[in-house]
Request: fold
Amino acid sequence: MSKVIVIGGGAAGCMAAITAARNGHNVVLVEKNEKIGKKLYITGKGRCNITNACATEDLFTFITSNPKFLYSAYNEFSNWDTIGFFEELGLRTKIERGERVFPESDKSSDVITTLSKELRRLGVDILYNTTVKDVLIKEGAFSAIVTHKGDTLYADSLVVATGGLSYPSTGSTGEGYEFAKKIGHNITSLYPSLVPFNVKEAYARQMQGLSLKNIEISIFDNEKELYREFGEMLFTHFGVSGPVIISASSYIAPILRQKTLKLMIDLKPALTFEQLDARILRDFEEFKNKQFKNALDKLLPSKLISVIIERSGILPEKKVNEISKVQRENLVKLIKGFELTLTGLRDYNEAIITKGGIDVKQINPKTMESKLAKNIYFAGEVLDLDALTGGHNLQIAWATGYVAGLLR
Reply:
């Protein structure tokens, strides 16, 4: 029986510790917080979207960085293995829209309790409120860790599952990158991801709190389309958020770091230009004696109307029957292409994940072991692996944690 140290009590670290302990190893889990799973607690708006129930081969289409690296890990521990793992430990699960898998109770705390009970049952020694300050290498292999208290803890193997930089209040502050750098690993560029955007236009703030469903967004770098998606979005005090915006950040974060981009919102994607024009004509016929500002209630939500009127250039008090064909066509163009300027990403405090991390070319995909130092394994968000929302990032954590915990 060998001794194993796991740094980080998040999803990947807990899975690595449980897997190693189930395989007969003596495991010490080092956690800087007073409890495990602090980031798990807030995932899925407190409900914890543990994985996704799509066909396993479809999982790779949701991974935005290095999907091929995960072939072996997902073959070893698929999304269905994740569901089975929790069900066997007594956590009932359910599948919701988008194949998202949640605990039946809708409580992330139940996921953490399930992990805690299993760690306790297996006799895993958890060192709470303990920060690792250094990782010691001897003759090209792991030797020991040094804690903030000055203690040196020796072991046969080490699993680094320290997370990224997102939600630093939960303890994700990037130490794992420093440990990896010391060994000689490359760290790819780091960005907050699955994160809202700041916008330039002040009128976006007028719509704060407005949620739009069944819209389509497109993001452009000059005339080049970078991203297009149909779904839901939200206006905030700083700009835009919501599912389609959050997903877009995963693709355009590196570009937006260097320049502004154009966001186009089609507010009525189900209608062609001609169909929308006909719809507006019908509304105008119904409200022909009303002022323009009172003629859009059937077409648009109230928070959007004043902004659309302002952007249209049509006087708010103008009678509907006095609006020209050109003005009406410009209104259609505005509704089909409502434009905003994206100026940047929100910071790591609001980012669901970190994009970038330890270069996976220097990690063995079948074992998660470093190719540069023996008996050191990496798992979870510290690696340059990330995916869209829907339980996919936690699936990366469970799978890489499981494989690392096998200590092969």
Observations:
- The longest strand covers residues 224-235.
